[in-house]
Amino acid sequence: MREHSSATPPSPEPLSSRYSGPAWGLLGILAFSFTVPLTKITLADDGFTALFVAAGRAVVAGLLAGGALALTGQQRPRGRQWIRLGIVAAGVVAGFPLLTSFALTEASAGHSAVVIALLPAATAVLAVLRGHERPPRAFWLTAAAGAVAATVFAAFRGGSFGGPHWSDLLLLGAVVAAACGYAEGGLLARELGAWQTISWALVLSAPVMVVLTGISVAQQPPTGSPAQWAAFAYLGVVSMYLGFLPWYRGLAIGPMTQVSQVQLAQPAFTLCWAALVLNEELSWATAVGAAAVIGCAASAVRTRLRRPPVSAVPRSEHRPNDPRTESTEPSQTAHTPIR
């Protein structure tokens, strides 16, 4: 290096930086892992209807989101950002809660959790299509192995393999809806911020959710026990709102294809909560399968991804608050000599 030169040799990516996105994602997944068992609790003994649970929790979260946006004076989204927020709202505010709530009227929490384990692979595919990420072959092999393990779980019932049930179709629809909401939300979080993204999506969907909640109450007033109301409160405050803060932050830091595989740990967490809270049987086959899924998740997260060249990423995704570029790209004017 010449004297007075401002150039510095390239340094490897810090270990903490490499795992920052997956770490935030894992925190969000831990919060989400209670969603299926607690939804099952709210639906027990017809205390709440599936429509009330799905729509009502979005209303609760929408009130929190609207208050947070108003108190902090956030700038409103612009132009096409509203359309993209509509995709997020349709996927994670309406689609996933509605489809899973109706599926859980028939399916067990443990079975639902492992079908939802297909979500990481679906999110990874959409991240490639929308986020211009280019995972290596090793990533796809581990992601595919996790998806196969989840599919085997879905077909394994009562010690034998059976055909698909209508609840499985609802759960697969929930997977597609959530994957769309996760991928688009992860990109928007780089522009709007993590909590702002889910907040605006909740506010945008609030009118529809309020109407659906009113319809459900008119059809069957909620008569849940204190434990069911506590479970409903968690779904509204954490599953529908607070859990998305670390989750979207992790996706924004990225790479999304890598962070999405952290979701493969969610079935194992959910199976544990289902066994502890709902007394659902945890068989040895399920335990072995869950361990295989977690192993696939760990392998996928450790896979190094090739970042796309700057020219391959649309300009609309380069924002001043982009967590990927804000702290890593040097200022273009810091060392410009004064002429």
UniProtKB/TrEMBL annotation:
- UniProt subcellular location: Membrane
Q: Which residues form the EamA domain?
A: 21-152, 166-295
Q: Where is this region: Disordered?
A: 308-339
Q: Output a single Gene Ontology CC term carried by this record.
A: membrane
The portions of this protein that span the membrane are 21-38, 50-71, 83-104, 110-129, 138-157, 169-188, 200-217, 229-247
Q: Mark out the compositionally biased spans (Polar residues).
A: 328-339
Please note every region of biased composition (Basic and acidic residues): 315-327
Location, primary (coarse class): membrane
Q: How does this chain sit within the bilayer?
A: Multi-pass membrane protein
Keywords linked to the UniProt accession: Membrane, Transmembrane, Transmembrane helix
Q: Which PANTHER family match?
A: EAMA DOMAIN-CONTAINING PROTEIN, INNER MEMBRANE TRANSPORTER
Per the record, the similarity remark reads: Belongs to the EamA transporter family.
Q: What is this protein called?
A: DMT family transporter
Which organism is this entry from? Nocardia flavorosea
